[in-house]
């Protein structure tokens, strides 16, 4: 990912006087053009990177420049390592490991043990229980396409089951709720769209088509941003069985549940009403009952009846 690559380049330039652009491109498996874009970004952040011409030329920091050690404290470096280690659970690659090693190398020896303790306090594991080996090739290919600004094509099945072939300009990979999404400009729809990676197949880079990155705000990159607007939310009330308190706490938190006189537990929440909400409530099984609103209770009851009919032993063959 770009942030890790930029940090790696900065650390390399701090430790070496001159580095060839081609060497950086090969190390990070991107194009030389991408490396020069990275250098422009580093310059824009206030770190003076210059290009030296000639036989022994290359990329280096301006003569006499040194990054102030106080710019990144040990606590801040530990936070970066923690973030990288957590990202690696679902998006791991060799660059992450190399960057963590480099950050460890700049920590003074006398602070090494303390640093290791600080960087090992938290691990946010984004990977699903069944692993994500099928997604890794897609992530790697899309990351390559984003870096090289190349159009990709794929077959996509949307939430309604409609299947279509898409050609898109990939701009950003997003993880939300343990699911990976691609933010891309769809050439057919002529607008930015979100694509769930699990619904992609036959993903290919078009080697002949490149694009210029389009501007869009970070809010546009958020998943479900518009659906979480207050006007799109449905308030509902769930009652959990007395022996299902643990389940209510697991999904909603101990502060959100209220005890009732009969020993059961009540939760009042507001979520966007869509297929995800119906599947979520049905997934709670017999542990929870919808009390309000009436229309949501009717929808869940109807779907539960359809499920029960699938398992009837007396249904006609």
TrEMBL record:
Lineage: superkingdom: Bacteria
Q: Which UniProt keywords apply?
A: Transcription, Transcription regulation
PROSITE patterns the record matches: HTH_DEOR_2, WYL
Q: Does the keyword Ribosomal protein apply?
A: no
Segments crossing the lipid bilayer: none
Classification via InterPro entries: CBASS_pafABC_assoc_protein, DeoR_HTH, HTH_11, PafC-like, WCX_dom, WH-like_DNA-bd_sf, WH_DNA-bd_sf, WYL_dom
Can you give the residue ranges of the HTH deoR-type domain?
A: 2-57
Q: Which Gene3D superfamilies match?
A: Winged helix-like DNA-binding domain superfamily/Winged helix DNA-binding domain
Database matches in Pfam families? HTH_11, WCX, WYL
> Which residues does UniProt call coiled coil?
none
According to UniProt, the name of this protein is Helix-turn-helix transcriptional regulator
Please report the organism this UniProt entry assigns to the protein: Cohnella soli
């Amino acid at each position: 990912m770009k942030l890790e690559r930029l940090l790696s380049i900065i650390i390399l330039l701090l430790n070496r006087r001159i580095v060839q652009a081609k060497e950086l491109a090969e190390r990070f498996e991107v194009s030389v053009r991408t490396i020069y874009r990275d250098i422009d970004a580093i310059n824009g952040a206030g770190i003076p990177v210059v290009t030296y011409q000639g036989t022994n030329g290359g990329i280096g920091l301006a003569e006499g420049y040194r990054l102030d050690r106080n710019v990144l404290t040990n606590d801040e470096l530990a936070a970066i390592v923690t973030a990288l280690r957590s990202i690696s659970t679902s998006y791991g690659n060799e660059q992450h490991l190399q960057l963590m090693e480099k950050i460890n190398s700049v920590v003074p020896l006398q602070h090494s043990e303390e640093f290791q303790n600080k960087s090992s306090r938290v691990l946010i594991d984004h990977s699903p229980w069944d692993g994500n080996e099928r997604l890794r090739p897609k992530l790697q290919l899309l990351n390559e396409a984003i870096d090289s600004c190349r159009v990709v094509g794929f077959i996509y099945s949307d939430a309604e089951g409609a299947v279509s072939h898409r050609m898109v300009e990939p701009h950003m990979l997003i993880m939300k709720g343990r699911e990976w999404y691609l933010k891309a400009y769809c050439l057919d729809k002529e607008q930015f769209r979100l694509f769930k990676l699990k619904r992609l197949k036959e993903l290919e880079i078009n080697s002949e088509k490149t694009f210029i990155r389009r501007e869009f705000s970070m809010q546009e990159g958020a998943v479900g941003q518009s659906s979480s607007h207050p006007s799109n939310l449905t308030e509902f009330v769930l009652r959990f069985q007395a022996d299902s308190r643990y389940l209510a706490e697991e999904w909603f938190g101990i502060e959100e549940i209220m005890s009732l006189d009969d020993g059961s537990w009540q939760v009042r929440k507001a979520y966007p009403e869509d297929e995800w909400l119906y599947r979520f409530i049905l997934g709670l099984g017999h542990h929870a009952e919808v009390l309000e609103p009436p229309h949501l209770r009717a929808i869940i009851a109807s779907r539960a009846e359809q499920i029960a009919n699938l398992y009837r032993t007396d249904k006609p063959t």
